[in-house]
Design goal:
Blueprint: E1 3-6, H1 11-20, H2 32-35, E2 40-48, E3 51-63, E4 67-71, E5 76-77
Length: 85
């Protein structure tokens, strides 16, 4: 059982995964990062044996004095045990 974390994920694959989740949320859609145009963003994914099992949008805001804040509504996952890797 191999897990792989990625910080760049295909838009179609990301949106298909997010929309298939019972916890679907507009704030996790791929294009939400475009609305937050003054934030940097990372579309993340977790693969188990080459199958996408988790995804999340991480927003990064640079603050004054070289400070940074991160925001992620939640990570979408298909099964709770995946959070233990």
């Amino acid at each position: 059982m191999n897990y792989r974390f990625v910080t760049s994920i295909n838009k179609n694959e990301y949106d298909a995964f997010v929309q298939s989740s019972p916890y679907v949320n507009l704030l996790q859609s791929y294009d939400w990062a475009l609305i937050k145009h003054n934030w940097k963003h990372i579309h993340t994914g977790v693969y188990k044996d080459e199958k996408l099992v988790g995804a999340g949008l991480v927003l990064i805001k640079e603050l004054p004095f070289k400070r940074i804040t991160f925001k992620n509504e939640y990570v979408l996952y298909t099964k709770r045990p995946y959070l233990r890797f």
